Each structure stands twice: as C-alpha cells, then as structure tokens.
Automatic annotation (TrEMBL):
Pathway: Cofactor biosynthesis; adenosylcobalamin biosynthesis; precorrin-2 from uroporphyrinogen III: step 1/1; Porphyrin-containing compound metabolism; siroheme biosynthesis; precorrin-2 from uroporphyrinogen III: step 1/1. It comes from the Bacteria. Keywords: Cobalamin biosynthesis, Methyltransferase, Porphyrin biosynthesis, S-adenosyl-L-methionine, Transferase. Its EC number is 2.1.1.107. Belongs to the precorrin methyltransferase family. Residues 19-229 form the Tetrapyrrole methylase domain. It comes from Skermanella aerolata. This is uroporphyrinogen-III C-methyltransferase. Pfam families: TP_methylase. InterPro entries: 4pyrrol_Mease (IPR000878), 4pyrrol_Methylase_sf (IPR035996), 4pyrrole_Mease_sub1 (IPR014777), 4pyrrole_Mease_sub2 (IPR014776), CobA/CysG_C (IPR006366), Siro_Cobalamin_biosynth (IPR050161), Uropor_MeTrfase_CS (IPR003043). One of its GO terms (biological process) is methylation.
C-alpha cells in the first residue's frame, strides 16, 4: 500500500531551544521538503514571512503559535535585527522555533543574516534549504534555467538593494555580456532601468523576457515580452509582485514546455 503521509524517515529531533531556518518553496505546498514538513509538525512557534501561504501554515501542528514577520498592507516590515532578536528570545524561552521563509532561506532571503545572529548568541540551529522561486517557479512556467542549446550559465540577481534602489554593486555591463540567462528577483519596481541597463550594455532589445507572477500557485501568470517592451507591458497588464523576471533564450522554450497550459487545454478538450 502507498502510505498517505510522508514516510517515517529518521528525521532529526526538533529539540527545544533550537531554531530551524527553513525554506517553504515558491508557493505550491507540494514543493515543501520532507524536512520542512517534519518541522511544521513539531514546531512550538513559527515565525513566517509574507510569501509563506495559508495552505502551508495550515500544516502546522495543532497548538503551534504563528508569528508573522513580513510586510503587511503597506505597513513597514519589522526591522531585520528585530526579527533576528525575536528568534533568539523565543529559543531562549525553550521553544522549538521554526523560521519559515519563502523559497530558499539563503537565496535573497536574509537567512544568512539571521543565522549569524543565532551564532552570535550561541543559539543552536539547523538550515533546511527550499526550492527557490528562480528555479522552481520558472519550472512551473515551462522555462528551464539551463538548456544545452541555449546557455551554459545562469545568473540570479536581485533588482532591489537594501536601500530600495537598483543595486549599484552590480557591474550591469559585465552581467549583460557574460550571462546568457539572467533571473531577477524583486525586479518589477526598477524594471525600466534594469532593462535599459542591459540594452545599453549590448543585449538585443528584442531579447525574450518572461515575467512569472505568483509562480507555482493557482493564480500563476506568465507574460512573455522582450527587453525593450517589458516595462511597458508590466504597467499595461497591472503586473504586481511577487514576480520573477527571466531574460534569455530559455524563454523561447516555453511554448513547447508549458506543461500547465497543456494540462488546462487537455481539461478543456
Ligand atoms: N528566498 C526566496 C526569495 C525571497 S525575495 C526564494 O528563494 O525564492 C522575494 C522575491 O522572490 C519576490 O519579490 C519575487 O521576485 C520572488 N518570488 C518568491 N516567490 C515567488 C513566486 N511564487 N512567484 C514569483 N516570484 C516569487
């Protein structure tokens, strides 16, 4: 018989006073790892970000406390040191603390910063990687991040620095020339500047771009566009975060590989 719940692997014991820093994947609860699932079932408190959806939080053990630590309704988000210190405090209270973040905690997720605070305060911790949106989210849009005929390299970038501006530590021209496929997180706000930077650095204006919103969720939306048109198309279509922007010829594989689109056509046959 096929078991209806995850197998009883020799899961590590979630001990009181520990913080587990886990990724929840891009959205679809089926993309949680078994370690993340085990953590949800054993945590005393979950400190979660805005990108962790209700279906995933609904898997938490009964009686587990849920603490929100993201941006809500235009209100400023809690300051990063406040979140890190909160984790320290909860662990010192002797709780099993699950810090749950969208995607992977170490990919544009500030997981490293929080882990460093735990180290500083001698709080024991475990890291549970997750499927990052820039890979798993694009897979749900039918876009492989590498493909032998198109690219042998891929660059993951953020379009937003800690100051909220276009990151100025990036050599845009070097990335434009050197990376065949570029996957951008948090890039909607400054998309016009970013696309302009790539074109100025020699990237073809008609290069394919896809913008994937709410990737892996039922309301996933994919816009296929080009570098020169993408900012206008985002505005014209009212595209809102969370969104990934992917630049490069892998986008051209989507018409063949859009397996979600194929499923819905089949359902409509
Ligand atoms: N740690 C996360 C990234 C956090 S930064 C990870 O590894 O995926 C937040 C950004 O991630 C969003 O602004 C968006 O660019 C991207 N993102 C996360 N989830 C997404 C989703 N379901 N659909 C589209 N973009 C997503």
């Amino acid at each position: 018989m096929i078991p209806s719940s995850p197998p009883s692997l020799p899961f590590p014991e979630f001990e009181p006073g520990w913080v587990w820093l886990a990724g929840a994947g891009p959205g679809d609860p089926g993309l949680l790892t078994l370690h993340a699932w085990h953590a949800l079932r054993h945590a005393d408190v979950i400190v979660y970000d805005a990108l962790v959806g209700p279906d995933i939080l609904g898997m938490a053990r009964e009686g587990c406390r849920l603490e929100f630590a993201g941006k809500r309704g235009g209100k400023p988000s809690p300051k990063q040191p406040d979140i890190s210190n909160r984790l320290v405090q909860l662990a010192r209270d002797g709780l099993r603390v699950l810090r749950l973040k969208g995607g992977d905690p170490f990919v544009f997720g500030r997981g490293g910063e929080e882990a460093l605070t735990l180290v500083e305060h001698h709080i024991p911790f475990r890291v549970i990687p997750g499927i990052t949106a820039g890979i798993g989210g694009l897979a749900y849009a039918g876009i492989p991040v590498t493909h032998r005929d198109t690219n042998h390299a891929v660059t993951f970038m953020t379009g937003h620095s800690a100051s909220g501006l276009v990151p100025d530590t990036i050599d845009w021209a070097a990335v434009a020339r050197g990376s065949q496929v570029i996957v951008l997180y948090m890039a909607l706000k400054h998309l016009r500047t970013i696309a302009g930077n790539f074109i100025s650095a020699g990237r073809p204006a008609d290069q394919a771009v896809a913008i994937v919103t709410n990737a892996t969720l039922p309301n996933q939306h994919v816009l296929e566009t080009t570098l020169e048109r993408c900012a206008d198309d985002v505005a014209a279509n009212g595209i809102e975060p969370p969104a990934l922007v992917v630049v490069g010829d892998v986008v051209l594989l989507r018409p063949a590989l859009d397996w979600i689109g194929a499923m819905s056509h089949r359902a409509g046959d």
